[in-house]
Design a protein that fits this description.
The chain is mainly α. 80% of the residues lie in helices and 0% in strands. Helix 3 packs antiparallel against helix 4.
């Protein structure tokens, strides 16, 4: 486990301050079982889709269970990289599978939340709105990754060039980004659900308010990102 911790290089907020503390324990178990990085990545599909199904039931307990499954996905996402570094089994196929897992799990997670929150709040319109949002976020991720897939930019410069299409333009947005990113949403929601259950909040105002604010601000951010894509690559 000490070797795994030495090799950690988390770049994302919740990876740095949450997942990397728990992932070495799971990584040690996966390594002892002889699992490959791709098999660990495949477990992200299982946990993510199970979480999305649980969310659809729409009770506070089901929403919490589904949310925790999505948090587990982030830990597993850290584990597959740790296994790859530990065994030297990194490959383009593994990166492809990892990206596919993110597309599927994020899209399914947003859709699951839409169905669950619609049932919780009694507002049926949340389902089509959430489905549209899930599609928009998936298209955003695909449009950015296709820049590298078709050769508009070099894959090895992915991290540096990502700022071209980022909407984290100022200190305020940079500060808010951890709670406005998809990964942030999947981590904040279980905390709000737990707080609401502990306080006996039957209106679930914090959960619904945060979800609405997240969706509106992210939809605006997607439009900005599409505009930046157009300016960066199609002037």
């Amino acid at each position: 486990m000490a070797k795994v911790r030495r090799q950690q290089n988390p770049k994302e907020f919740f990876g740095r301050y949450f997942s990397c503390y728990f992932s070495p324990y799971l990584t040690a178990v996966f390594h002892a079982l002889g699992l490959t990085p791709n098999q660990v990545t495949a477990s992200m599909f299982v946990a993510g889709l199970a979480g999305a199904v649980a969310l659809c039931f729409g009770t506070p307990a089901a929403l919490l269970a589904g949310s925790l499954c999505l948090v587990l996905v982030n830990v597993l996402d850290t584990c597959d990289g740790e296994i790859a570094r530990l065994t030297g089994q990194s490959s383009p196929g593994g990166e492809y599978l990892d990206r596919l897992a993110h597309y599927v799990v994020e899209g399914a997670g947003f859709l699951g939340y839409a169905v669950g929150l619609a049932a919780l709040s009694g507002r049926a319109w949340v389902v089509p709105a959430g489905a549209a949002f899930a599609l928009l976020k998936t298209l955003e991720a695909l449009s950015r990754d296709l820049v590298f897939a078709v050769g508009l930019d070099a894959p090895e410069e992915r991290k540096q060039r990502k700022r071209k299409t980022s909407f984290r333009g100022g200190p305020l947005l940079a500060m808010l980004y951890p709670v406005l990113s998809p990964n942030g949403f999947f981590h904040v929601m279980p905390l709000l659900l737990l707080a609401g259950m502990a306080l006996g909040d039957r209106s679930h105002a914090a959960v619904l308010g945060y979800a609405a604010a997240f969706a509106v601000l992210n939809a605006a951010g997607v439009l900005v990102r599409f505009w930046k894509l157009q300016r960066a690559y199609f002037p």
